[in-house]
Amino acid sequence: MSTDPAKSTTYAAAGVDVEAGDRAVELMKSAVAATHNANVVGEVGGFAGLFDVSVLKDFDRPLLASSTDGVGTKVAIAQALDKHDTIGYDLVGMVVDDIIVCGAKPLFMTDYIACGKVVAERIADIVRGIAEACASADVALVGGETAEHPGLLGVDEYDVAGAATGVVEASKLLGPEKVSAGDVLIGLPSSGIHSNGYSLVRHVIAEAGWGLDRNVPEFGRTLGEELLVPTHVYTGELNALFSALPDAVHAVSHVTGGGLSANVARVLPKGLVAKMSRTSWEIPPVFSTLGDLGGVPQEDRERTWNLGVGMVLVASAASVDSVLAACPGSWVLGDVSTDDGSLASELDYVQGAKGVDGGAAILG
Prior knowledge:
Pathway: Purine metabolism; IMP biosynthesis via de novo pathway; 5-amino-1-(5-phospho-D-ribosyl)imidazole from N(2)-formyl-N(1)-(5-phospho-D-ribosyl)glycinamide: step 2/2. This protein is α+β, with helices and mostly antiparallel strands and 364 residues long. The chain has 2 domains: 14-169, CATH 3.30.1330.10; 176-363, Alpha-Beta Complex (Phosphoribosyl-aminoimidazole Synthetase, Chain A, domain 2), CATH 3.90.650.10. It has helices spanning 18-33, 74-81, 87-100, 120-136, 198-208, 223-227, 235-244, 259-265, 285-294, 298-304, 320-326, and strands at residues 40-41, 50-51, 62-70, 105-115, 140-148, 158-169, 184-189, 215-216, 221-222, 249-254, 272-276, 309-315, 331-338, 350-351, 360-363. The strands form 4 sheets. The protein has a 7-stranded mixed beta sheet, sandwiched between helices. The chain has a 4-stranded mixed beta sheet with strand order 3-6-4-5, covered by helices on one side.
């Protein structure tokens, strides 16, 4: 059956540009390859990423750790500013830092980008950021996928997601089972809002009529520049910490959605409470400025944003000085004690957060 050329319909006519996808791969290829180590088998472009796990033979009981996440509505800021080379750091931080918290070393990562139209340079910028962040954490970027969804996403719209796998020796697994009364909470500074709570951020600035090009004296830069500060990736420094001080840290909390108390509570065993002091650190201006601009109640700020605390280490009291010395910018945030029930009626008391029937936390 012949086809009338005048009436023929091609994939390109439907909105999918295969050639643009190929160009994007060529532009990102060197950045991705730079994350590969001796354990990566094959080159960029295979149907599946291959990773040699022969090293697992040296483990007594290797536990694989996996994590998947996205960046959320922060991508809307990147799209509005047409700046896409930092959003990859946000993705990597959200994924691999959820693996390092249990003491596992992230091994490799994959990414997925869905877009309305493949613009090769834009896709390459996104993946270049992902690759650079992976390299900073010693994680191999072994594969990914870019999917063009015309009609579902606008031509300048995209979303990103990723997944990673790591490994930890069972005896070195960090978590509630290792935490006890007397342990000390050590805060690690965030680089800003990271990638959580941007729906609230965008609502606040929209209601206030603030443009992303607005210069904000408190920030020392424009609003858009402040909002696009990439998530700090902690995996590299925590890997080094765990190697140097293998028994110092008992648990780690990644402060993401839900805020400080909810995320700390989920790494404590039932019967213990983390008492944290609001006066132990200075909240960065971005949180107070946006919170005041939108009239955001303090409780909403604390359960939505990290407020300057990106990670919390639960360490033995004897190792506090060593951990502080190993982690620039860190400070003592509070401590862990037996939960005698006396704090349960307090407004700031959080227990059983994120579906975990574990310990409690209070920010006072």
